[in-house]
């Protein structure tokens, strides 16, 4: 899946104009005024969102963001506004942040500056931006409309179809596409558009909307409005379960990366959270790592792992701004493992595979240029990950637990889970209740499988050992480098090289583990012929057979028919630093029936149900 960066200029009348489509971005009668009249007025906003907990809008054709910015402004000005506003926007030709600012309507300059400051890297996928302390959520689907309709999940309350003219861009008004988007409408949902083409109105009618032509804005005499009033009740897909009732309390089992992320995300929604962990403090398991790397995992075919790590990295950026002293994201160098891999990368970049990488995300880099970035010359050229870097893992976990305000119960091992009515219970090995709540999220790595009775969750443990180098080694290295293994030199002079990947039946001796790690170091930097190891950090990775995380609500399964309210976040392997925030947001969205910030096929890829047998 590829996207094309949009181009924009001014036409003879001074209107924002698209050279690709030969059409203007907004009415010559005023972009802001058109948006208020057609899209807000036509969908009966702000009246329809008033007094509601949350309200969801879908737009096909984000462009300069005028409709979003107008909606945001109206929501902020309305004292009776909904508790949360979700805005899902599809755009196959995204513009640059500078375009958002330069071409904004005068009435929306302040809002446009705010949007431009948060504008994401132009890569395919879903990009989540938040405003007003998370009460306004913008999910940008950077992909063609034909792809986006297959990726949407959840339901909407209002629809803004706002592409270029059907004559200029017929794909966005294709009847099958419009019907596919409308299949996500809630009963009573409204739509509005300036377009009155008969084929468009027919598609909306066939999708279940009652359609009218009403007086239009400016030089357009008519526009289209509609309300979703289907003759037959909509039956939605149940691929992704949602909570029947929003939980007021939750138990989080595990106080590591996954658990601390979930605790924070639920606490933001007002949930009373209790974290239970077998260790003496937070981050006492694999998350005790002092520093870890954070970066996407590129692939030439844009595989699921690359897409998931891109999304995970995107979700992290706003979160890490809260902990500036614990993170360094000036960039990360990934050296090619050998000449063949470097040549493959060079060919992929030349052929724009899987897409044209923006330089503020990923670019090819020579060994000589890498030296100027990281302080040491690597053996080979490779990739530069802009905005990636390192994070102080254990400190971050403990800071998040404190920030969440959750009740913390340490030195307590959960032996089993059960349901009592609608409540979830965590019990010890003797069957005594440790905690009880509306929901429970299991975040205890490979131990997760032991807490789901009757479910065979195929998780394995792989030991990883990181060699800690003596003071004075790698002093010239700045940050981290990955490739065959990885090396970190942190701001507090912590130096680690690793890491081993040891199965349960093939454990290395200490000498073998150090030897393996130090061989990675000389592979990265052949000039470092002498380095002494002072000790180890070791932990256990939790891995699923497909090497993807296991995240979401546990569906009913043989031996566990009542799993409502039970969720898992585990199997992140070596990428817990990247996946934990994304996993927490997916789970919270499922609990609160919110739009999920991930494409539908990726939700399937990480869903716990992919391993379970359904009850007979």
Automatic annotation (TrEMBL):
InterPro entries in UniProt: FAD-dep_OxRdtase, FAD/NAD-bd_sf, MnmC-like_methylTransf, SAM-dependent_MTases_sf, tRNA_MAMT_biosynth_bifunc_MnmC, tRNA_MNMC2, tRNA_S-uridine_synth_MnmC_C
Q: What does this protein do?
A: Catalyzes the last two steps in the biosynthesis of 5-methylaminomethyl-2-thiouridine (mnm(5)s(2)U) at the wobble position (U34) in tRNA. Catalyzes the FAD-dependent demodification of cmnm(5)s(2)U34 to nm(5)s(2)U34, followed by the transfer of a methyl group from S-adenosyl-L-methionine to nm(5)s(2)U34, to form mnm(5)s(2)U34.
Question: One of this protein's GO BP terms?
Answer: tRNA wobble base modification
Region described as FAD-dependent cmnm(5)s(2)U34 oxidoreductase: 253-616
EC annotation from Swiss-Prot or TrEMBL: 2.1.1.61, 1.5.-.-
Q: What name does UniProt use for this protein? A: tRNA 5-methylaminomethyl-2-thiouridine biosynthesis bifunctional protein MnmC
A cellular component term from Gene Ontology for this protein is: cytoplasm
Please give the catalytic activity noted in the UniProt record.
5-aminomethyl-2-thiouridine(34) in tRNA + S-adenosyl-L-methionine = 5-methylaminomethyl-2-thiouridine(34) in tRNA + S-adenosyl-L-homocysteine + H(+)
Tell me the compartments it is located in.
Cytoplasm
Keywords assigned by UniProt, alphabetized: Cytoplasm, FAD, Flavoprotein, Methyltransferase, Multifunctional enzyme, Oxidoreductase, S-adenosyl-L-methionine, Transferase, tRNA processing
Ranges for domain MnmC-like methyltransferase come to: 109-226
GO terms for molecular function, please?
Answer: flavin adenine dinucleotide binding; oxidoreductase activity, acting on the CH-NH group of donors; tRNA (5-methylaminomethyl-2-thiouridylate)(34)-methyltransferase activity
Q: Which residues form the FAD dependent oxidoreductase domain?
A: 250-589
């Amino acid at each position: 899946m590829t996207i094309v960066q949009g181009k924009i200029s001014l036409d003879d009348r001074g209107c924002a104009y698209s050279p690709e489509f030969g059409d203007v971005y907004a009415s010559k009668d005023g972009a802001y005024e058109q948006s208020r009249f057609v899209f807000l007025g036509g969908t009966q906003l702000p009246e329809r969102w008033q007094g509601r907990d949350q309200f969801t809008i879908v737009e096909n054709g984000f462009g300069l963001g005028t409709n979003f910015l107008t909606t945001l402004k109206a929501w902020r000005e309305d004292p009776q506004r909904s508790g949360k506003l979700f805005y899902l926007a599809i755009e196959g030709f995204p513009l640059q942040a500078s375009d958002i600012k330069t071409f904004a309507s005068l009435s929306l300059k302040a809002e446009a500056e705010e949007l431009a400051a948060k504008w994401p890297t132009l890569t395919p996928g879903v990009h989540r931006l938040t405003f007003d302390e998370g009460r306004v959520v913008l999910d940008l689907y950077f992909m063609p409309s034909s792809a986006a309709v297959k990726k949407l999940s959840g339901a909407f309350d209002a629809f803004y179809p706002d592409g270029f003219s059907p004559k200029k861009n017929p794909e966005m008004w294709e009847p099958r596409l419009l019907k596919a988007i409308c299949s996500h409408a809630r009963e009573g949902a409204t739509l509005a558009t300036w377009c009155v083409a008969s084929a468009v109105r027919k598609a909306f009618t066939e999708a279940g909307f009652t359609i009218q032509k009403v007086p239009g804005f400016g030089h357009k005499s008519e526009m289209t409005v509609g309300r979703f009033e289907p003759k037959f009740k909509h039956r939605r897909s149940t691929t992704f379960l949602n909570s029947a009732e929003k939980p007021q309390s939750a138990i989080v089992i595990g106080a590591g990366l996954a658990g601390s992320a979930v605790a924070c995300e639920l606490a933001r929604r007002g949930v009373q959270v209790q974290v239970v962990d077998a260790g003496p403090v937070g981050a006492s398991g694999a998350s005790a790592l002092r520093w870890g790397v954070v970066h996407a995992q590129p692939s030439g075919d844009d595989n699921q792992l690359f897409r998931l790590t891109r999304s995970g990295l995107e979700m992290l950026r706003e979160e890490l701004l809260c902990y500036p002293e614990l993170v360094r994201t000036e960039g990360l160098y990934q050296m090619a493992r050998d000449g063949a891999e470097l040549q493959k990368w060079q060919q992929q970049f030349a052929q724009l595979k899987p897409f044209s990488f923006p330089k503020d995300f990923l670019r090819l880099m020579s060994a000589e240029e890498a030296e100027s970035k990281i302080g040491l010359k690597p053996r080979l050229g490779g990739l530069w990950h802009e905005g990636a870097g390192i994070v102080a893992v254990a400190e971050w976990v403990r800071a998040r637990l404190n920030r969440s305000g959750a009740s913390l119960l340490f030195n307590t091992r959960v032996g089993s889970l059960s349901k009592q009515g609608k409540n979830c219970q965590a019990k010890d090995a003797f069957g005594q209740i440790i905690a009880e709540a509306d929901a429970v999220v299991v975040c205890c790595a490979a131990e997760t499988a032991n807490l789901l009775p009757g479910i065979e969750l195929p998780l394995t443990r792989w030991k990883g050992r990181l060699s800690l180098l003596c003071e004075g080694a790698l002093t010239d290295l700045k940050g981290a480098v990955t490739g065959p293994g990885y090396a970190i030199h942190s701001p507090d002079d912590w130096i680690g090289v690793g890491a081993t990947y040891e199965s349960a039946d093939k454990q290395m001796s200490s000498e073998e583990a150090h030897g393996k790690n130090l061989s990675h170091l000389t592979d990265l930097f052949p000039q470092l012929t002498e380095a002494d190891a002072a000790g180890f950090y070791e932990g256990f990775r939790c891995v699923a057979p497909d090497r993807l995380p296991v995240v979401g609500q546990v569906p009913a399964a043989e031996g566990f028919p009542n799993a409502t309210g039970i969720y898992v976040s585990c199997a992140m392997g070596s990428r817990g630093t990247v996946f934990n925030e994304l996993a927490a947001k997916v789970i919270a969205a499922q609990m609160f029936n919110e739009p999920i910030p991930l494409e539908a096929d990726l939700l399937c890829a990480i869903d716990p149900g992919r391993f379970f047998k359904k009850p007979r």
